[in-house]
Amino acid sequence: MEPETYAAGVLALQSGVAFPDARIAYVTFGALNAARDNAVIFPTRFGGTHEDNLYLIGEDRALDPREYFIVVPNLIGNGVSSSPSNTGGAFAHGHFPAVSIYDNVLAQHRLATEVLGIERFALVLGWSMGGQQAYQWASLYPDRVARLAVICGAARTAPHTHVFMEGMKAALTADAAWAGGAYREPPERGLRAIGRAWAGWGFSQAFYRAEMFRELGYISLEDFLVRYWEGLYMARDANNILTMLATWRSADVGANERYRGDYAAAMGAIEARTLLMPGRTDLYFPPEDAEAEAELLRRAEIKPIESVWGHYAGGGRSEEDLRFLTAALRELLESD
User: In this predicted model, what pLDDT tens digit does every residue of 173-209 receive, in sequence order?
Assistant: First the structure.
């Protein structure tokens, strides 16, 4: 599926850099109705592209293109939108600037309004870093977001997750071939290392205890580590990974010129009917964090995903979890 490209021009980033010729890759499904009230925006997650969001889109899924106009914008840094791997000149490779969740959402808002003619969304949702973008949408544009769904995500990055990301960065950049981001060949040892390091976080202890990786077609734990986790990161660009880690690490709905660091005010501004779906065994975004967020929101409901699939409970890998997500999102979409 080939995405369309929105030429966003110069982005004035929060890092103070004027980033030229920025591009947002996106796909759409369905059509905007006459009332222009059926739009849904579904940003991508860390490392994912628009193709990874298809699990919730379809006639038998939560987001039915016969009813909704669904927009899937790719995260800056993911290798499809502007990224270190596809940007030339002064910002190529290791010189790519820091890009925040806020920067992404401002660019997505321009895409929605200037290109697609959308003024109001029936739903903004996302899994993981997609959920962070969804939160930022609802906080920045409260009068334009009717419903918000955050799946295994958070409004800001917790200290424990920050520690996790520092470990991932260290595993990748310890490879001498990384060369400060100026590598000529992929830093293979670092990419394999980050894959193995990440393996202990994406799924839960219970998942590994029950050897549920066999349900995914892997014959042993080592097979899973090599073919899935190492393979996943060997297919990614190292500088893209570091760019997305920096975006995730800095995520905070209040860290912008509107709220000036006031997290509670940014959360309190959200008017959307909100559904928080943390994974019961998610190591990044546990249910306790969602409960604390809900206390700051006007109209929030928490529906934990009772799953041993850890963070991946939100990604549609388990048919049981996918049925839960589909039912919960359909109920949200039918609500006033």
Answer: 999 999 999 999 999 999 999 999 999 999 999 999 9
Q: What predicted TM-score, i.e. pTM, was given to this entire model?
A: 0.98
127-181 pLDDT tens trace = 999 999 999 999 999 999 999 999 999 999 999 999 999 999 999 999 999 999 9
Task: Judge whether 274 and 300 are in contact, CB under 8 Å.
Answer: yes
Do β-strands 69-73 and 18-29 pair in parallel, antiparallel, or remain unpaired?
antiparallel
Q: Which residues on adjacent β-strands are paired with residue 126?
A: 150
Residue 182 CA, distance from chain mean position: 26
Task: Give Cα 171 to chain centroid, integer Å.
Answer: 22
Question: Percentages helix, strand, coil for the chain, rounded to the nearest 5?
Answer: 45, 15, 40
Structure-derived torsion over alpha carbons of residues 312, 318, 321, 327, reported in degrees to the nearest 10: 120
SS3 276: strand
The catalytic residue positions are 128, 282, 311
